[in-house]
Q: What sequence folds into this?
């Protein structure tokens, strides 16, 4: 009887420690997460791409230089492959909700079979302080957030680290490397602009040269046609905005104009085929539907869900302006200058000045140093106008531009030889 009991016990031990190995690993990771004082909550998530996945809430000071000013909880998603694998940290520029999807896996994490630490940006979605004091939404504080998380998780994941982000997340990757040059081994910013002013000034000339003269003319002709049809389309526009409960800080006719001005930037940014643009002889229905599909007026609403982004753009990150000259005859506005402050910033920040210090520090860092960094851009993406394509190629800094690419440019969309070069570079750096 005792022998049978011993055999049964042995089988149970075999099941839990051999057959159920992932369960044991899960307990180990979860225990380590639970032992981090800064983490107030840890919840297991479903994942088809990782052996374990958790959403955690990490306590951060509102101001890292003055912790007595208070704190907030930053959402951090931890996706596990192995303690001996490299770790990718996504320096998200906005919210993290999409990363909760069970099927989500970031490109580099998949290419390298790496762990993934996904950091929601401060002042977005669940990482918004209870009292939204805008003075603490700075590049330095966001870099300090990432440094605190990296410093904590390096004990769990002691291998090589890669920071990466897309668009504003790429800007965050870039500024993080500038503030903390030794935090990560490799940085891969995707489609990340480095703007020098609230209206940088390089985007408008870019749009005058992008692609072919034939494509540019078709786009401008469409914009002019929308303006020429304002008398018949503006009532539809107003009805649409009323139905969607869109609130603006400018008259509806002016928002109509801004939607037309935004059209060319938006079309090139997202790589919409020029062939999809309706002819100038198309019906009002076709013209109006296409305008809304490419340049929806919800971009210009007051107090939008991404107001925090506009605050950062106006304060430090910079943005772009519009060229009104080709359309002046039909516009309700005399100038688009200052539109970001006028339309999209919180009312109390309408006079927020731009500080060039961040862009100057980043430029200086890139010129004087040679960190292991790979920049990915799309040739036709207007944000590339403010990209770091001016950087002279160094031993470690590499810039790759996808021919004809848009803001959707990734490693996977590069021509095969360039894609291979990127992957080989990163694998060599990870040795």
A:
């Amino acid at each position: 009887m005792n022998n049978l009991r011993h055999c049964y016990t042995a089988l149970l031990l075999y099941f839990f420690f051999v057959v159920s190995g992932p369960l044991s690993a899960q307990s180990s990771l979860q225990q380590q997460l639970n032992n981090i004082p800064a983490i107030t909550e840890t919840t297991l998530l479903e994942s088809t791409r990782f052996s374990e996945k958790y959403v955690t809430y990490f306590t951060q000071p509102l101001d890292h230089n003055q912790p007595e000013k208070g704190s907030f909880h930053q959402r951090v998603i931890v996706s596990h492959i192995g303690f001996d694998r490299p770790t990718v940290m996504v320096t998200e520029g906005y919210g993290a909700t999409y990363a909760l999807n069970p099927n989500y896996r970031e490109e580099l994490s998949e290419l390298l079979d790496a762990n993934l630490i996904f950091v929601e940006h401060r002042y977005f979605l669940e990482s918004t302080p209870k009292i939204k004091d805008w003075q603490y939404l700075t590049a330095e504080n966001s870099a300090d957030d990432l440094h605190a998380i990296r410093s904590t998780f390096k004990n769990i994941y002691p291998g090589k680290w890669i920071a990466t982000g897309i668009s504003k997340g790429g800007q965050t990757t870039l500024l993080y490397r500038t503030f903390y040059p030794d935090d990560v081994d490799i940085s891969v910013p995707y489609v990340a602009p480095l703007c020098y002013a609230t209206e940088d000034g390089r985007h408008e000339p870019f749009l005058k040269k992008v692609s072919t003269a034939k494509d540019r003319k078709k786009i401008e002709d469409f914009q002019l046609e929308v303006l020429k049809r304002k008398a018949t389309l503006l009532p539809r526009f107003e009805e649409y905005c009323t139905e969607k409960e869109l609130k603006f800080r400018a008259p509806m006719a002016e928002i109509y104009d801004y939607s037309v001005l935004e059209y060319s930037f938006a079309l090139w940014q997202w790589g919409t085929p020029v062939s999809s643009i309706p002819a100038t002889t198309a019906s009002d229905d076709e013209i109006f539907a296409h305008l809304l599909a490419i340049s929806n007026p919800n971009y210009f609403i007051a107090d939008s869900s991404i107001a925090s982004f506009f605050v950062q753009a106006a304060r430090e990150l910079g943005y772009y302006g519009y060229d009104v000259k080709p359309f002046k005859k039909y516009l309700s506005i005399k100038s688009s200058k200052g539109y970001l402050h006028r339309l999209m910033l919180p009312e109390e920040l309408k006079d927020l000045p731009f500080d060039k210090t961040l862009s100057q520090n980043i430029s200086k860092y890139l010129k004087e140093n040679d960190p292991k960094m790979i920049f990915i851009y799309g040739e036709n993406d207007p944000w590339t106008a403010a990209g770091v394509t001016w950087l002279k190629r160094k031993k470690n800094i590499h810039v790759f531009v996808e021919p004809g690419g848009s803001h959707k440019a990734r490693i996977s969309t590069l021509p095969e030889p360039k894609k291979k070069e990127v992957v080989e570079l990163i694998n060599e750096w990870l040795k």
Summary: Confidence is low (pLDDT under 50) at residues 1-26. The chain has two domains: 36-195+358-429, 203-349.
